[in-house]
Amino acid sequence: MTTSFAPLIAAIGDLVPHPANVRSNSPETYDTENIAHLKASIAVLGLLQPLLVQRIDGKYAVLAGGRRHAALKELVADKAAKGFTAKTKIDCRLVPEDCDVTTALSLAENITQAPMNAIDEFEAFARMMEVDGQTPETIAKTFGTTVAAVKGRLRYGLIHPDIRAAARGKVITLDTMKAFAEHPSQEAQREVFEALTKDGGYLQAYTVRQALKSRGVQVSDDIGAFVRADYEARGGAVAADLLEEHSVLEDAALVETILLEKLGAAAEEARIKLGFAWADAMVRYDYATMADYGRVYPGPIEPDEAAQKRIDEITAELEKLQLEMEDEGLEDGAYNALYERVDALEEEARDLQEAYSAEDLARSGVIASWQGGQITLHVGLVRPEDTVKEEGARGSSASPTGEEAPDAGEITYPASLAEDLKTERAMALGAAMALHPEATLDLTLFKLVSDVLASGISVTQAIKIDARKEYRSHAKMDEIDETSLEQVAAAHDALDLSWLDEARAPADQFAAFRALKAGEKAKLVAYATASTTQSCFARDRSRDSLMHAFEIEIMPDIRAHWTPNAALFNRFKKAWLLKILGEDLGLAQEAVTLASSSKKEIVAFCDKLFAEPFATLTDAQRAAVAAWCPPMMQTAGIAFDEAEPAAETPEPDSEVSHAA
């Protein structure tokens, strides 16, 4: 059947929807945001395709072209649109009133038009600019889209013709073709394309991007942004892209030269400031090469009067800042500013209390490298030929303990945090003791009798058997993980306290106590002893072999009684948190992703991770999360001697030890 439709000129105000339009049950099709491009195009170019209409009840019902009709109505309602009113005439084609295939006509209008090939679309945008002389701004206005979106299409339309032809012929994929837009130079694109296809290999988008990286550095790359001003000042060639961030600094050698100069200047500045003997620079820190270098560390010094005054000022300001940071309503920007101030103050305080020796300064230096989008200084390095080989010598690669000295970027625990962690560990140990009444009863009785019957030297200072509850000092008791508290509370609820009645005479209470079953007595003694645990880190076998062995028995894993939480993570530096995620927990990708986040966001991530390990974790990652804690807190871990130096450990029978 062949049907001809007569031309018709109709006013926009005389048009109504047709019930047979196949899109009539999808009103979202006509939403403002879905027809914005069409509205913009009609406003600039006019209606390019007539509407298919049928006369119904004195009106012209739009059988095909409902989206164009919706766009026309919006133009009429838009006061800013010129030349569109309800009386504006538009071209239509009239379907006879007796037509019996109206639905088929509507469907055909909507489905017989083949979607435009993506490459054709990209090239059409490019021709609009190159042939028609339009700008990205005018093209965007025509199609009701953003300038950035237009530029994105234009970039693909301006890829070298040979590469576009390969994509059109299915020799390479569309994504592979798009990868060539990473470099705006068609000549560079062609050379890379020919080099990668000369052996007939399968071309991938990733391979293309990697190859184009050797042809220069994008200005949006961290190195490109860092050197760009100097690069352009020296006349370095720039391949301009429609999207500025994809423009390329083409002289890679000049980029590296400038970067090394800047790194060298930073290293020299640090050398002068700190008093080192030499300074050097490298683009990427080569850990394999640097493994042969030694490293020296600053040692404690006695601050003079002026330094001590400044330390006191810093301490007071840090306390004030800490209170401000506890405000939960604090905006991220304000919080990060406070955090940076705290970090700077803590570093200043350390510098006032630590210094390198003259001998170390005379043979060590600083290397500046580019890491994580910024200059990183590696200080206190000692060249292999200058490394002191004597065992335990100050500044050698080996520490006085015989263990490898920590990297300057390793996590360290400030004294205030270390003291609080000792308290939290003591509470966890107390919970473990309360949950192991028989073992704790034996320990209590052993200490009680041995302290009296032995030579007078206490077998351990870890607990007190003098009927006095231990006072535990902590900066923020209300922020401690509640696991140990809940376990101790449960142990308390299980106690038989029927004998404890202050209205009765002590002798009567004692008689009732003696009548208890042995197991109930063990629980009571264990609970009482657990309340005396001292602030502590993991025991050193050589210092307290009794408690070392006892803790391994009753608390082999502190995580059964304690979980890291936001309060702890909030006291860590951002770099420490990323290091823990990437190195300790095996979440390297997450650490990279979070590197650009605020510390507050990273703390929240860690808090959720430890509260309930994510389902997406591998078995190894899950095990790492389940086991992680500061190393000096884990019974089965390495004793953290640095946090609890032997020089500060009181003698067993000293007055200080009994007051600790």
Automatic annotation (TrEMBL):
Keywords (A to Z) from UniProt: Coiled coil
GO CC terms in record: chromosome
Gene3D superfamilies: 1.10.10.2830, 3.90.1530.30
Keyword Signal: no
Entry keyword annotation includes Membrane: no
InterPro entries to which the protein is assigned, alphabetical: Chromosome_partition/occlusion, ParB/Sulfiredoxin_sf, ParB_N
Residues annotated as transmembrane: none
SMART domains, sorted: ParB
GO BP annotations, alphabetical order: chromosome segregation
Domain annotation ParB-like N-terminal: ranges: 8-111
Region of interest (Disordered), ranges: 388-408
CDD domains: ParB_N_like
Coiled coil: 304-362
Entry-linked PANTHER family: CHROMOSOME 2-PARTITIONING PROTEIN PARB-RELATED, CHROMOSOME-PARTITIONING PROTEIN PARB-RELATED
Designated name of the protein: Plasmid partitioning protein ParB
